[in-house]
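Case study 2.
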Amino acid sequence: MTNHHGKEFIGFMATGPAVGIPEPVWKWMACPKMKVDGYGRPWQAPYGMRKVEAALQDAGFKAAIIDPDHIGKYLKNAKALMFSHHDYFAFGPPSSTWWAIAKKEPVNYKSFVSLIRRPEVKEAKARGVKIVAGGPGVWQWLWRTDLAEEVGLDTIIDGEGEKAVVEIAKKIVEGEPLPSYVYVGAEDAPSVDEIPVIKGASVNGLIEIMRGCARSCRFCSVTLRPTRYYPLDKIEQELMVNYRAGVRHGVIHSDDVLFYGASGIYPRPEPLIKLHKLVKKYYKTVAWSHASLAAIKYAEEKYGLVSKITEIVYEDGNQNYLGVEVGIETGSVRLAKEIMPAKSSPFKPEDYPQIVEDAFRIMHEHHIIPAGTM
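Prediction:
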């Protein structure tokens, strides 16, 4: 568990193998250990895990996120051990790319496999502790059934887990049989009111502002989820949780930050301006997790909105650039029409290459540094 020295994008190094230097040095550079309290609870933890932790605690369970180096002291009395991971077995990009190029196992893969093979985990399973897996990379267990059998995995929760994990926990406590696989589809996804507020600091101050996406790209699971916007007061509660824990730098998370409060696929100035003013009350510096190139182009050309937002972000002098990940996906008009026709909206798919160039120009002019992915 790590916050990558407070630099979110250094996390990409943790998806690769050690190259040219000893692995302990590579891991210190990419994923240094998180500081913990006397109970082994990390100062910051992945945001999705914080949501599950809050859901279980709100439901009355004695649940906590514990750093992997400290789980041994709790497993003797635990009823369940729950894992979450963004990329359990390095099947996702860029892990698979690193692995293919370097012909070496990435450190994130090696670290997780080492964890599930620890003696204290095997002993806990032998005593009857239930093992549950979730998180963004949970689908990878379906392709590593050998490791699922080795660790004795009882249940996979695939999808937004805040409601499902509570039901699984009840079954564990009551000694009921567990389903091997739980899929949370759109009809079962929690409403905004059912999504709990985190109770501990999130890695690098990441806070979620919405879920879902209206672009319906064929390669993306996010579009399968209903669109839900967090109200500003809910967002502020999570900002305060991080602030009280000493977090002063953060990431605004959405699969398209400029969709917050949008009318369909059309960004709106008012909610976005209010959002950024609120976030800057608590964070000295801020980044976006993701933004779409069409939204950047539309927002700036229609409203000068990128200019207005960056003025808010930069005006206190604590930062002079803003980082974001943007999905280029393809330069092919044919593929754009076939697999992501709405990614260019409200512009035409035929114009997608020009949309990409225009959006990158806008970002350059406003000191926004993108990590472009394909």
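Residues 269-282 form the longest helix (14 residues).
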